Amino acid sequence: MDKENKKISIYIFGKKYRVPESLTIQKAMEYSGFRFIRNCGCRGGVCGACITVYRLPDDYRIRTALACQKIVEPEMYLTQVPFVPSRKATYDILDNPEIAENPIQKLYPEVSGCVFCNTCSKACPMDIEVMDYIAAAIQGDIREVAQISFECVMCGLCAARCPAEISQFNVALLARRVYGSHILPFPPDVKLMVKEIREGKYQEVLDRLSQLDMEKLKEIYSKREQEPQESEGWEPKEKDFPLPYLQ
Ligand code: SF4
Ligand code: SF4
Ligand code: FES
Hints:
Helix content is 33%, strand content 10%. It contains ten helices and five strands; from the N terminus they run ββαβββααααααααα. It has a five-stranded mixed beta sheet with strand order 2-1-5-3-4, covered by helices on one side. α4 crosses α7 (168-183) and α5 (142-148) crosses α7 (168-183). The structure holds iron/sulfur cluster (SF4) (2 copies) and FE2/S2 (inorganic) cluster.
């Protein structure tokens, strides 16, 4: 029997199901007849909607995962968590320059209650060192918080497990916003692009694109050059894209 077809037993919300062993938790649930109306978004490990808690046989530990990423394991006992209610401070990041000075202590003073148990890092399905960014937050090191938390998908599992009841991911979101709006220099290319958009440089192209049907749009979209991950100094070869495809 090939791996695709070999079946194992798992328990979903306490009920036993036989599912192919190659499936993710999300696909195994669909295979078992569940239809997602929540707990599912991107299906690609980005949105953080599919948070799942499970235990394995003969293991006392409770484990966490993103259902769209984690492959099922024999006798896995799982449930999904629809949502983790978390505290989110309200602030206007642009109209409030003082926010750049020690914003975390002002808006999330509860970070000081961290007991450095590392439960949050162990719960994180993205393997982020959550405790380290909370330690950086306590020290007011915005850049460090922003950089360590960069891959956070806002799933909330860290907050669900924290004995100090900190909403770590909202603290990190604040740090990334402050870092982007008050600490990093504004990229000159973006400034130029905004100016050109305001001056109507792209209006004619936009008008022509909006006349096209979906198939033609997809075709043109697939021809675009993609900016590389390390994009410093990068420029597209076709400077007048998509004009040549609109003739
Ligand atoms: S830091 Fe928290 S909210 Fe972000 S991905 Fe990790 S567990 Fe989820
Ligand atoms: S789980 Fe809470 S108390 Fe423990 S290290 Fe993380 S932030 Fe601190
Ligand atoms: S569905 Fe988006 S992370 Fe799993």
